[in-house]
TrEMBL record:
<keyword id="KW-0547">Nucleotide-binding</keyword>
<dbReference type="InterPro" id="IPR027417">
    <property type="entry name" value="P-loop_NTPase"/>
</dbReference>
<keyword id="KW-0410">Iron transport</keyword>
<dbReference type="GO" id="GO:0016887">
    <property type="term" value="F:ATP hydrolysis activity"/>
</dbReference>
<dbReference type="GO" id="GO:0006826">
    <property type="term" value="P:iron ion transport"/>
</dbReference>
<dbReference type="Pfam" id="PF00005">
    <property type="entry name" value="ABC_tran"/>
</dbReference>
<keyword id="KW-0067">ATP-binding</keyword>
<keyword id="KW-0472">Membrane</keyword>
<keyword id="KW-0813">Transport</keyword>
<dbReference type="InterPro" id="IPR051535">
    <property type="entry name" value="Siderophore_ABC-ATPase"/>
</dbReference>
<protein>
    <submittedName>
        <fullName>Iron complex transport system ATP-binding protein</fullName>
    </submittedName>
</protein>
<dbReference type="InterPro" id="IPR003439">
    <property type="entry name" value="ABC_transporter-like_ATP-bd"/>
</dbReference>
<dbReference type="InterPro" id="IPR017871">
    <property type="entry name" value="ABC_transporter-like_CS"/>
</dbReference>
<dbReference type="GO" id="GO:0005886">
    <property type="term" value="C:plasma membrane"/>
</dbReference>
<dbReference type="InterPro" id="IPR003593">
    <property type="entry name" value="AAA+_ATPase"/>
</dbReference>
<feature type="domain" description="ABC transporter">
    <location>
        <begin position="9"/>
        <end position="245"/>
    </location>
</feature>
<keyword id="KW-0408">Iron</keyword>
Amino acid sequence: MSLTQSIGIHVEGVHFGYPARPVLRGVDLTVRPGELTALIGLNGCGKSTLLRLAAGLLRPNRGRVLLGGEDLARLSRRATAARVALLHQSAPAVPGMTVRHLVRQGRYAARGPLGMLREGDDPVVHRALRDVGVEHWADRDVDALSGGERQRVRLAMALAQDTRVLLLDEPTTYLDLHHQLDVLRTVVRLREERGLTVVMVLHDLAHAARFAERIVALREGLVVADGAPKEVVTPGLLADVLKVAGRVGTDPEGGWPVCYPDHPLHALENENQFH
């Protein structure tokens, strides 16, 4: 994998929230160029908020987010979209829109509003369709596709932004196991082929342990674990971050950690785990 065009993300002392509800409470995080990182944690811990800050869709209350050394607070929305692409967890329905037209929307940052009025795809759109394997669906309506197929198309739209950073917010949500693995394997392949820096929010710790080279765990707006899956995926992580009792083994072929969750932990039970 070539890292000559990859860029990193630096989150420095970031606080974000609302008067009655702090979300992030002083996050420091550096994602190295070309790295594939998974964010994990319970709902409400700040994972998706951190991703939106890294995409420039939110501004920190305090601290800053740097992309390739540039402070996102000083960039316009369009300039940011030329540097980082975010695949949201869900998207509104697009009745009547073909795959080709949806993927073309990813070119807005590069082509601008007038350029988007021109008919025809550019080479970046063709490459995005091809790289995700959806070029043979190009003239089909998006709303006629299955959930897994639509997710591949949305991934192609994100690639059409032609950025060096790709952020994915729970890309496997609502997908069956076949399509979960299909999407994650595609992300891993594209990261290698394009030299992308990838950060993805995942609910499934098993997927994070298998596909990411680094796991960052958040709890109540703070980073509480950060490292390679073999280092951070432990029974303590299951209890402290995900609030479940369980065991951790090793996949006999791939060598990645395998989790065996047993039961949910209640507050007192969780506290006793560490006494």
